[in-house]
Write a structure and sequence with these properties.
Length: 238
């Protein structure tokens, strides 16, 4: 497969080397796509985004009708956040991203969804540690301490066991999940993306804290690898 690479951004971060690049593949008729590497490992691609979008769709589908305030943990290339803005019931969207470089990709409009996110008045991109904010009783919105939300959609770690940083581990334990649930309104939803197939043990952890918990397997085609992959979206309701 003939490939063309263009590095758009590089930074040394607390989590390792961060690289944003644009690629073209002759097998895909030369259409450009974007991908991100972190600490030497592949993190995400604009070519494969079905499960990131499903995170939003599955999470919001579990809410009661109304108007919703939503938090997205992890900005990345923006597909989870943009899918939330596609839903007219979303009244406000707060996106918490740890790496300021990732936010700058969008504010500088060097990734495809940058303009979509930065020009929608409902959307606010904030730099912060999602996991630290989840531990704090003041919650995710520094401008409104104690504010609660209808949905929290999380796409940061590879899976509940595949962490980008060891400081994230407590969120996936019962006490961490209880702290996160406290930031949700009654009937609120916590939805989590995982790159792995459903893990019954983690679904059970969610079920011990939340009123309901279900794991949705999301199968999709990976055209670059020429195969189908399976990710998971966990959805739990207060």
């Amino acid at each position: 497969m003939s490939l063309n690479f263009e590095e758009l951004d590089f930074a040394q971060t607390r989590l390792g080397e961060l690289i944003l690049r644009r690629r073209r593949a002759l097998s895909l008729e030369g259409e450009p796509f974007y991908e991100v590497k972190l600490a030497g490992s592949f993190l995400m691609s604009s070519l494969v985004n079905a499960s990131e979008i499903a995170l939003t769709e599955r999470g919001l589908a579990a809410l009661q009708p109304g108007s919703w305030d939503v938090v997205v943990g992890g900005l990345g290339l923006g597909y989870t956040a943009a899918a939330a803005l596609d839903d007219p019931a979303v009244e406000s969207l707060l996106v918490v991203e740890f790496l300021p470089e990732v936010i700058s990709w969008h504010t500088r409009n060097i990734v495809p969804l940058g303009e979509t996110l930065t020009t929608d008045e409902r959307c606010r991109l904030v730099q912060g540690d999602f996991f630290e904010l989840a531990r704090n009783p003041d919650g995710f919105d520094r401008e409104a301490p104690g504010r609660r939300f209808d949905a929290v959609l999380l796409d940061i770690d590879h899976s509940p066991d595949g962490l980008l940083h060891s400081s994230h581990a407590d969120l996936y334990q019962p006490e961490g999940l209880r702290r996160l649930a406290a930031h949700l309104r009654p009937g609120g939803v916590f939805a989590l993306w995982s790159s792995e197939p459903p893990e019954p043990a983690f679904t059970d952890k969610l079920g011990a804290v939340f009123a309901t918990a279900v794991a949705h397997a999301v199968q999709f085609e990976n055209p670059l690898l020429g195969r189908d992959d399976v990710n998971t979206v966990y959805v739990a309701t207060v």
